[in-house]
Amino acid sequence: MTENHLYLEGIEQEEELLEKLEKRDSIMITDNDGKKNEIEIDKRLAVSQHDITDKVFILERISYSPKKKDLRFGYYVIAEKGQFEEEWIWGQRTPYIPTKDLKKIFEKAEELNFI
User: Fold this and answer.
1) What pLDDT, in 10s, does the model give residues 10-69?
2) Where along the chain do its domains lie?
3) Beta bridge mates, 58
4) Nearby residues of 79 by Cβ (< 8 Å), 6 or more positions away
5) In whole angstroms, how far apart are CA 70 and each of 17, 43, 58, 87?
6) What are the DSSP calls for 51-92, one per residue?
7) 4 exposed, middle or buried (CB, 10 Å; 0-12, 13-18, 19+)?
8) Residue 4 to residues 23, 45, 69, 74, 84: CA-CA distances in angstroms?
9) Sign for the pseudo-dihedral over CA of 53, 42, 108, 29
């Protein structure tokens, strides 16, 4: 089960995001040979962007094995159009993040022994 650390201040549709995060304790990745693997998420840090209410940055510690752990960084955003309009979705683009929020993520990550 994923250990969640949530710092969500003033976000829209908070319950929907929390429900989505609680359900997701692993991710599917494809290796270089095209084989799909389910990878466990050990820890998750979620920090809302300070100046908008529909974006949350996510730092996850994932485990390939007991000895190999990596970090995955991304974000959730509320979709503005399409089939998932008005729902929290995993961001598909490079995250743009205010310096203030990145500093908070690094501070919390160190405090919680992510890094």
Assistant:
1) 998 999 999 999 999 999 989 899 999 999 999 999 999 999 999 999 999 998 888 888
2) 3-111
3) 46, 74
4) 85, 86, 87, 88, 89
5) 23, 11, 14, 28
6) T-SSEEEEEEEEESSSS-EEEEEEEEEE--SSTTTTSEEE--
7) middle
8) 11, 6, 17, 15, 24
9) negative
